[in-house]
């Protein structure tokens, strides 16, 4: 791409003629004329007529061999934003497709925002949403930004810095994600020039000094390679690979290395005709020079998510220095340089909108943008989300089927699970990495094969997941899970739950719900008012039992002293009664039959509130299972199922066995905290077993006696509050 020369509209349209039809060229001319009229009497900061800018933008799009509508979009990209032209009139004069492209790059105008940042974020969001609908929007936007960066010297310094920052934060990473490396490099190098001129010119200077020395060495290497390849009849283009200023700058800054340590790395690129030749060349290089272990990467067999393909290796070169080699076909090289633009490139007989759809589908991260933006109401939060995902380093991991999933580095299996699907995330109970069980906070590494284990009996995310997960996507889905119901509902639900818990403690709610007492408790739990506290109970941010316990602590303490002895005696009596009742009566009614022998199955331990089915066993009456118990899913069983239901009104009196599996980070005291949490809910524990594995993953099994599913849920919610608890699952002994 030519940087210095200023193109005229004829230059641009003539260049376009080399690959477009006459009708298309006429269409471009019409677009240019329309823009010229609209921008008449407008001037840029440089003093040039405004139209010069859109013409250069269109020129960049022609260099990328874009389709006519996109180029016309380049000519017209500023007319709606900066002139009296409306979208409607554009659509009338041209077509809907073009109007949509221009709308996508037009900033929001009239609406007032609370701050400049908020407006900026809102503008970016609009652009990303438009881009998710039609990727050509971003190609126009990148061309626009590139020309603005090339002419940045005409703006005052504070604007230069702001625009350069924005370029580094959003547009260069975006170009990278779309694989358009030529634009990415130029954006980065130019931004560096304005953000850190001192370092920029220092690196330029150092590169100049070393150039001759390097070039002669590279030439030597290239000659050697050429003669080797000639011997085996492989035709290849071999060139020294240019290093970019910004990447040198970043390596120096991040790895704290000296210029020489980075720039002395020699790099060559070899372009061949076929994939077969790529591997043949690799073989030859590895025989000539010793490969450095761990440096070979096969991005041909496993393309990067931006579809980059190449073989990478580093060998010890002729002078004993490391020599980086990239080997790829010419097609791969096109994609390496122009990325998604190469797929959009307008070729005869090829409708770009069809070919590119396949390509867009492969950029899965891209499809998710619309998803996220639907869920995030705050544009600034949306941009933060996007920046994390655009900007951080990535790890590439695989599904068991071999699909590549790209995640920000530091991601854990839960991030992976939420990337697959929200429901997969919410129901995750464990993960296998490369076939081996790993804890949920295991940090994923490149190439890991990740298999998420889910259970429909999982009770959903724990509070801890918010700290374990890395991606904003996972975090927002987890938060969403907790806040699923609206605030008002949560408040009233939470209030109801707290009152119920208080009554369960045999205390009249109005006796403890005084404003002083409430204030004491919500402050204790760091809420700013009682409604916030109730809302948190409502969305399960905190349990009602915990609040109720705290609200009633004073009253209970006083009462305890008086009644200590009496209560103990009474409790023992109660227990005995309950045990007798349980033996006699399961609390389940069989449709149309009285006095039937009914047994609750031991495999799934149904409790009131569960959906249940009855199953007639030979000579042992009716066995009652949970409807989703694996043991009643067979066809043979299905024929012997009976309709059964829980008897009303008695469920609070009886107690039922439930098995829970709790997994978490294996630390001192975890088991005790779990037991304590269960005790706080006044629940009897009849069995406990804990074990841990080499990965510091603790698995605790407990069997408890509960009244009904509501009771069970309170216990589970309480356990999920405990730090380091990953999952709580109701288990089935199948
Ligand atoms: Mn512009």
Write the layout of secondary structure elements.
Elements: H1 9-17, H2 22-38, H3 52-63, H4 68-76, H5 79-82, H6 87-93, H7 96-105, H8 116-133, H9 136-150, H10 157-177, H11 181-195, H12 197-231, E1 237-240, H13 245-254, H14 259-263, E2 266-272, H15 275-288, E3 297-298, E4 311-316, E5 322-329, H16 330-338, H17 340-344, H18 352-362, H19 364-375, H20 379-391, E6 394-398, E7 404-408, H21 413-420, H22 422-426, E8 428-433, E9 436-438, E10 450-454, H23 465-468, H24 472-482, H25 487-504, H26 509-512, H27 515-524, H28 530-538, H29 544-551, H30 553-584, E11 588-590, E12 598-600, E13 612-616, E14 622-626, H31 635-638, E15 641-642, E16 644-646, E17 656-665, H32 670-680, E18 684-692, E19 697-706, H33 709-720, E20 725-730
Parallel strand pairs: 2-5, 12-14
Antiparallel strand pairs: 1-2, 3-4, 4-5, 6-7, 8-9, 8-10, 11-16, 13-14, 13-15, 17-19, 17-20, 18-19
The site of manganese (II) ion has 4 residues, from loops.
């Amino acid at each position: 791409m030519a940087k210095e020369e200023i193109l005229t509209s004829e230059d641009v349209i003539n260049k376009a003629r080399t690959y477009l039809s006459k009708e298309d060229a006429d269409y471009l001319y019409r677009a240019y004329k329309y823009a010229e009229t609209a921008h008449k009497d407008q001037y840029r900061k440089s003093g040039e007529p405004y139209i010069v800018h859109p013409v250069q933008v269109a020129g960049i799009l022609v260099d990328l061999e874009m389709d006519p509508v996109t180029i016309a979009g380049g000519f017209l990209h500023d007319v709606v934003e900066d002139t009296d032209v409306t979208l409607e009139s554009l659509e009338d004069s041209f077509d809907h497709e073009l109007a949509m492209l221009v709308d996508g790059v037009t900033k929001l105008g009239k609406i007032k925002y609370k701050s400049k940042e908020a407006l900026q974020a809102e503008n970016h969001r609009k652009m990303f949403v438009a881009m998710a609908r039609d990727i050509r929007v971003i190609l126009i936007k990148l061309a626009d930004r590139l020309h603005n960066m090339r002419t940045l010297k005409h703006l005052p310094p504070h604007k230069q810095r702001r625009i350069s920052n924005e370029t580094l934060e959003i547009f260069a990473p975006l170009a990278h994600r779309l694989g358009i490396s030529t634009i990415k490099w130029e954006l980065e190098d130019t931004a560096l020039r304005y953000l850190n001129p001192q370092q920029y010119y220092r690196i330029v200077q150092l590169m100049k000094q070393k150039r001759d020395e390097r070039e002669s060495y590279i030439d030597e290497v290239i000659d050697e390679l050429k003669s080797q390849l000639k011997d085996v009849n492989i035709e290849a283009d071999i060139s020294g690979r240019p290093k970019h200023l910004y990447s040198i700058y970043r390596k120096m800054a991040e790895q704290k290395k000296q210029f020489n340590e980075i720039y002395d790395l020699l790099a060559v690129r070899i372009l061949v005709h076929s994939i077969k030749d790529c591997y043949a060349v690799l073989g030859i290089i590895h025989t000539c020079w010793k490969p450095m272990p761990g440096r070979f990467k096969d991005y041909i067999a496993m393309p990067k998510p931006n579809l980059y393909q190449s073989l990478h290796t580093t060998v010890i070169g002729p002078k004993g220095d490391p020599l980086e080699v990239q080997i790829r076909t010419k097609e791969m090289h096109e994609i390496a340089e122009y990325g998604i633009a190469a797929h959009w490139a307008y070729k005869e007989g090829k409708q770009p909108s069809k070919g590119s759809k396949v390509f867009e589908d492969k950029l899965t991260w891209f499809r998710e943008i619309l998803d996220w933006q639907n869920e995030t109401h705050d544009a600034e939060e949306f941009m933060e989300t996007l920046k994390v995902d655009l900007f951080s380093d990535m790890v590439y991991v695989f599904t068991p089927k071999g699909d590549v999933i790209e995640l920000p580095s530091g991601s854990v299996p839960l991030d992976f699970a939420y990337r697959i699907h929200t429901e997969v995330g919410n129901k995750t109970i464990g993960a296998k990495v490369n076939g081996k069980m790993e804890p949920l906070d295991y940090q994923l590494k490149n190439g890991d094969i990740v298999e998420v284990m889910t259970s429909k009996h999982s009770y959903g995310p724990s509070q801890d997941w918010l700290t374990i997960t890395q991606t904003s996507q996972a975090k927002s889905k987890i938060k969403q899970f907790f806040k699923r119901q609206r605030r008002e509902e949560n408040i009233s639900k939470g209030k109801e739950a707290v009152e119920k818990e208080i009554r369960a403690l045999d205390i009249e709610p109005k006796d403890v719900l005084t404003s002083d007492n409430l204030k004491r408790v919500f402050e204790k739990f760091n809420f700013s008012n009682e409604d916030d506290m109730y809302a948190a109970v409502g969305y399960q941010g905190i349990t009602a039992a915990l609040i109720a316990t705290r609200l009633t602590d004073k009253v209970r303490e006083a009462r305890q002293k008086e009644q200590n002895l009496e209560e103990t005696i009474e409790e023992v009596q109660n227990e005995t009664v309950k045990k007798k009742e349980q033996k006699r009566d399961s609390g389940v009614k069989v449709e149309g039959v009285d006095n039937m022998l009914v047994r609750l199955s031991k495999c799934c331990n149904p409790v009131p509130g569960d959906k249940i089915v009855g199953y007639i066993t030979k000579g042992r009456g009716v066995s009652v299972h949970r409807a989703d118990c694996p043991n009643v899913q067979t066809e043979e069983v299905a024929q012997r199922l009976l309709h059964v239901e829980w008897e009303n009104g008695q469920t609070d009196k009886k107690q039922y066995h439930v098995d829970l599996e709790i997994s978490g980070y294996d630390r001192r005291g975890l088991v005790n905290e779990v037991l304590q949490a269960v005790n706080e809910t006044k629940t009897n524990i009849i069995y406990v077993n804990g074990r841990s594995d080499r990965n510091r993953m603790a698995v605790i099994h407990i069997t408890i006696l509960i009244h009904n599913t509501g009771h069970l849920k309170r216990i589970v919610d309480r356990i999920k509050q405990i730090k380091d608890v990953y999952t709580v699952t109701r288990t089935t002994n199948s």
